[in-house]
Write a structure and sequence with these properties.
The chain is α/β, with parallel strands linked by helices and about 280 residues long. About 55% of the residues lie in helices and about 10% in strands.
Length: about 280
Amino acid sequence: MTRNRKRLPRMIAAAASMAVAGVLAYILLFGKLFPLSPVVIGFERTDLDNAVVFTQKGYDFGDLRWMDTVFGRVEEFHGLQFASRPRILLFGDDRTYSRRSLSRARLCAFYNGTIVVSPWLSREDADGTVSLETYLEHELSHVLIFQNLGIPASIRYPKWLLEGVATLGSRQMGTPFYPDSAETVRLIAEGNWMPPEAYGTDAEEDVPLDVENRMPFIYCEFALIVDDLIDRFGRERFQEYMTGHTFWSDPDEVFERTYGMGFEEYLSSFRTDICR
């Protein structure tokens, strides 16, 4: 009797562990953590030179070899190289994408190098509304930085910088929903401004912006900052700043060490210059 009483807690703990493992496995294979799963069920695999593409079974995405042509442009703009082939998951229907992705965006890059592509982006690309190639180039920018900095540093990487680099590098300004450079300057001159330090925090939603498309404007504002840094101080200096972040570093200290001035001081001069 005593032996059975001692075994009971261990049996309960083992059963609980198995249940947790089962739930986690289900979420990885069929739930929201699917983009992080090493096993991809329900998709067909296509190996390209620069990426591994998985397409949802039952849907025709055409010839995918065009994706290989994007990688060289991304590497050239960043002055970096991909350490491994990213995974690209192309979803065919909205319901599956909703069930098996943490994101509701058109595309989303995860720290493990996986990019998920929503079914509506493929439809929008097919009817000419937006370009899948442009959006893919944007997300590949994120993956390239993740791979070169590592996951810990990427988690703490300035979010405004991540999006500014991707938007500028993919030439997204002036495409559908995204204001071009002149329009972005005009909107900033009218008083629209997302403080870079507020982006990605709870304070972001409290910033009023009188613009047609809020997030595209924010991305284009950040792209203008990146473009100005490159133009004013040179690409080599920007390269140092872009890759100089670690998990332990303070973003403002990295900026000041690189450019010899505080980030807020720079932003003040930037806004003054472009609004003249």
